[in-house]
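Friendly challenge for the regulars: who can give me the structure tokens for this chain first? No prize, just bragging rights.
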Amino acid sequence: MTEIHRSWQPSAAYLYVLHLDAPSTAWEFLRRNPRYREQWQGSDEDSDWGLSFAEDPSLDARQARPIWCVGQRPVVRLIPHTDPAAQCFDLWAIPGRKSLTHEGQHLWLQGTSGRELVRLTLSPDMRNGEPFAYAMPAGAEHKQYRFTLETALGLLQGTRANTVTALNRPPRSATIHMRALQALDGTLAGATQRDIAVVLFGDERVAEQWNPDSELRAQVRYLVQRGRELMEGGYRDLLN
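First reply, four minutes later:
Bragging rights claimed.
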């Protein structure tokens, strides 16, 4: 049993999943994949997981900063600007946890605005403390960049209140993903579906409603199946 699955029963430990964006949720399922974990530990297997480079599976989405090479939203680039009135780039003024990662072709800046993980690329000649501008490809459909630009503004200019997702409650899909993740951990830890039902829905409800053809059992079966599907490659659908 890995460290991920030892403490799968306290539901409060999974509440952070409600506030993850899609790429971070995808990471939570991928990092539980036994083959991915074996490869990280030194297996000779060479598989395409959709990452620009491997990330440590012991790190959950609050700590890890995986860079996906599939299903990314349009990316805004930060470039130097000659107008002295432009905002100056200040890495240390960005609130919360942030990271700079070079994956061979691009330097990526990652941080959090609201509950969204923001990913930007930096021009090679960007300098801390100097004016900058946001750049997107000429001819690009501006509507596709609206969300990316809003989250970038939220990260770098403190306008998170203007971002759409910062105002919304977690969607229903987030609750499903949270429960599927917990059900998956229970399964990988050797728990039965009834054990999982008790943890997710309580002893009393299970005692009253659990039987081979019950809706409750079907719901647990779905969560277990959904968790496995996402772990075994379905996480890529979240990236799209």
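Residues 77-167 form one domain. The longest strand covers residues 107-113. Your move, everyone else.
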